[in-house]
Amino acid sequence: MRVKPSASESLHDDDIVEATVTDRRSVQRRLLAPISVAIAGLAGCAVVFAVDPNEPGHYPLCPTRALLGIDCPGCGLMRGTYDLLHGDLAGAVDHNLLIPFLVPIVLVLWLGWLRRAGTGIRPAVTRGQFRRRNRLLLTGLALLLAFGVVRNFVPYLDSGSSAAPRSMTISGSTFG
């Protein structure tokens, strides 16, 4: 970052070096959060890769599954992640149908965060863009909620967990 000196000041090389070091530290400070989140995510993936969540006793049960006996929208994500990390896409989708959608969405959001942190530029958001983002967020949440409800009534959408017994009766037919 170069600062144009006023007529009464002269700019020395030391001033330019200090400004550059400060800018570099500022960038490093801004990058700390997204890089820390990436390291934590990779560490979590390493644990899930090493310890099979399909074997009982290694991880806590989903509270919704344990208390209510139903699958929440996130049930099966850890087992699906395990399968995905071991190259079994079909197994991952069998545990949670959202995995093929969530992985790219999370990566794109993280890369956008990393880019904004690295450049320090926050794009201006117009009122229309803000409304569209809110509608997109609310639509995503509504779809997530709908998936959480539907997966408990459609047998092949459940998480495939045997953590809690369950069966549902809908108009005389038993699922489970």
Could you characterize what this model shows?
Helix content is 60%, strand content 3%. The protein has one domain. The chain has six helices and two strands; from the N terminus they run H-H-H-H-H-H-E-E. A two-stranded antiparallel ribbon has the order 1-2. The chain starts with 12 loop residues before the first helix and ends with a strand. A hairpin with a 2-residue loop joins strand 1 and strand 2 (173-175). The radius of gyration is 24 Å and the shape is globular. With 176 residues, the protein is mainly alpha-helical.
Write the layout of secondary structure elements.
Elements: H1 13-50, H2 63-68, H3 77-85, H4 89-95, H5 99-119, H6 127-150, E1 168-170, E2 173-175
Antiparallel strand pairs: 1-2
Helix pairs in contact: 1-5, 3-4
Please name the defining characteristics of this protein:
176 residues, mainly alpha, two-stranded antiparallel ribbon, 6 helices, 2 strands
Summarize the structure.
With 176 residues, the chain is mostly helical. The protein contains 6 helices and 2 strands.
